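Assess this today:

___
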Amino acid sequence: MKKLYSLLTLFIFIMCSCSSLNSYYSKLEKDMMTNHTEQAQSLTSSSEKSYGNKNKLLYYLDLGFLKHLSKKYEESNAVFEQAKQIYDENYTKSISAGTVSLFSNDNVIPYYGNPYEMAYVNVFCALNYILQGKDNEAVVEARQFDNLLKKQVTDSKGKAFYTDDPFIRYFMGIVYENAGYYNDALVSYKLALKNYEHANEYNLEPPKDLISSLYYLYTKLGFSQEAKDLKEQYSVSVPVQNGNGGEVIIVNYNGLSPKKIDHITEMSFYKAWPYFTSAKIENDEQEKAQKVISAVQAGISDSYLKIAFPQYERYENRISSFIVEELNFENKETGLQYKSYEASDIGTLLINALQDETSSVYAKTIARAVGRYVLSKVITDQVRQHENKDTYGLSILTNSVLNIANSLIEKADKRSWRTLPEQINMSRIYLPEGIHTLNIKYLDSSSNVVSQEQIVVHVEKGKKTFAITKSFKS
């Protein structure tokens, strides 16, 4: 009987030993939505313990990006390097920790990360280096991205969901070109165009700037026939490049990437009467209320089964694009306007990636729920067989306790890189050499101005100048 009690205690401990980052992310979410980047970075820096050892990778991803937004470029790269190291260490590990998750949930095992997350780490690191004037170091990030994709294709035999990325190919083409690696830039631009058209997880059209850049390099490197074919296919319009000026590349991080929520299904029986519910848990208040309701339902049921699947939910963000207006020395508009374009839809990428995993996630979740149900029944039957007049009713109590434990522990793995933007918008502008004040107007889907800000850029002859902005308006 003592062994039975020990098994029961261990079972409940395993099932109830999970932590939640919900409270922390609620605070971080508010800071990100109000563009209080420094405040968000300070919060994350002081919240390492909240992440715990299992979520170290997420901690470094969140902190690295927030330092990037806070213009602490060297610190950002140092943090991102730690994220890369953890990802590489975890990449070859088998999910041996999954044995525990079969009786609990996936939140008890480490967060291993995804290849597309590490690809965006390369993007942010490359930008960090460029903004420090380290163009060649940025090229290293472009090569790391290329190696990441090659490894994905090789290890999955081409069957992985994420085997290439049109936006990052395009961006790394800019990185190569910026450092003078024109042949590498040409290859990257070609792959970007190919992926935008044929293997596009973003569902986006190829940017005109990408086509113009590819045409420019075709002509620069002497590929006249390829340049002619490209011009005929896309009606290329090459922007006028001022011989005494340079290019300004504005990279806008818009919105917040979707967050995962629980989609819960519960089934129970009480004296042969069935009970079935299905609900989405969208916030902390709903989660707390659901826990109470589920625990009561489970406690009075003869049999109880609960299944929770992750599901992405987008944030409401009024901003969809921006326009850039150049201001004169009197801070008045010159009449020149430049429209942005959407280069990356990270939100859609994340949703499509989760959909690709649906069958395996469903199979594992159902198997885990059924396994816990069977184990709880075995324990309850064992208790019932050892009952006597002094312990009468213990089996009923055991069944209720295990059902309640099942209701509390079943949670979807909702972990993801929460500080990522929902989309990346860009604008590439050629301006004369000198200091320019640019007014950025953020627009909604009907082209109404939602908000605006001014940035100052220093344009150097024959060079590219990068500027980063962040936008969100609920």
Observations:
- The two ends are 58 Å apart (CA to CA).
- The longest helix spans residues 358-385.
